[in-house]
Write a structure and sequence with these properties.
Helix content is 45%, strand content 15%. It is of the alpha+beta class and 275 residues long. A six-stranded antiparallel β-sheet has the order 2-1-6-5-4-3.
């Protein structure tokens, strides 16, 4: 029973998928996609995932999420085997989303939206989801922390410090009393379409939605706890997460375009080298 299941559900679909690449004839993308879906139904076949990087569509999302549960997770430095990387790439192709290489993020997105047939997120939902703790650590805290530290001790801040860190506003919020804006520079603010007071993947962040997905910068607010006040809110200009995500996706695509996307010859093992 077990051997029959493996043959018909695992071995045969992978074999049929690889036969497509040896036919020498032009193959319809839909046929490749359907064969790849069957090939990764039970095991995350490397070459089927490579093919889906090019031909995946929304119908691929549930299949790829299932495959993602079976590939090894990236390590703490983000290093992963190529099969895992191809799975993430194929999911971006299928969903139109540019989330980072984090299995939990993709799982949460799919769980929240699968009742609606794997819909595409709105631009506002996508960009807010891309503001992760890693993004804040790299692009926000190096600029907000020095300013928040200075604001702990004085309200008359050095203008060069504010300019160097692209600060648009500073608010102090005492535990008792009214909030007060001690600095504001409207001219520095990028265009926006409103603000959300919290994002799903980072703490203490208020986010101003970009007016255009391609604008290079956005405004963000980060709250800092303060002994003298309840908290200090630093508003600053940071890179647009959508632009960063698309740049990363394009770089990954370019890096992988040098490797062959043809199915492997029969009997040859998939590559498991690390990126």
């Amino acid at each position: 029973m077990g051997g029959g299941f493996y043959y018909f559900q695992v071995h045969r679909p992978i074999k049929e998928f690889r036969k497509l690449g040896r036919s020498g004839e032009p193959i319809d993308a839909g046929k490749i996609r359907d064969a790849a879906h069957k090939a990764i139904r039970w095991v995350p076949d490397h070459d089927a995932l490579v093919a889906l990087c090019d031909v995946a569509d929304e119908s691929s999302v549930p299949v790829l999420i299932r495959a993602l549960r079976k590939v090894p997770s990236p390590d703490s430095n983000g290093t992963m085997i190529c099969t895992t990387d191809h799975c993430f790439q194929a999911l971006r192709k299928a969903s139109g989303r540019y989330f980072e290489n984090n299995i939990e993020t993709w799982e949460n997105w799919y769980r929240d939206h699968r009742a609606h047939g794997s819909p595409r997120l709105t631009m506002k939902e996508e960009v807010a989801a891309l503001v992760t703790e890693a993004y804040v650590k790299k692009y926000v805290r190096p600029h907000s922390d020095p300013v928040a530290l200075a604001a702990h001790h004085a309200t008359d801040l050095d203008q060069s410090l504010l300019d160097a860190h692209q600060i648009t506003a500073i608010e102090v919020n005492p535990r008792n009393g009214k909030s007060k804006t001690i600095y504001e520079n409207e001219s520095r603010r990028p265009p926006n379409e409103g603000m959300v007071t919290g994002v799903p993947n980072a703490h203490n962040i208020g986010f101003f939605y970009p007016a255009s997905p391609d604008q290079p910068t956005v405004e963000l607010r980060v709250n800092h706890d303060c002994d003298a006040f309840g908290h200090i809110a630093i508003h600053l200009v940071v890179p647009n997460p959508l632009v960063i995500a698309k740049q990363k996706a394009n770089a990954n695509k370019a890096a992988n375009s040098t490797s062959s996307h043809d199915p492997l010859p029969a009997g040859q093992k998939p590559r498991n080298e690390q990126q």
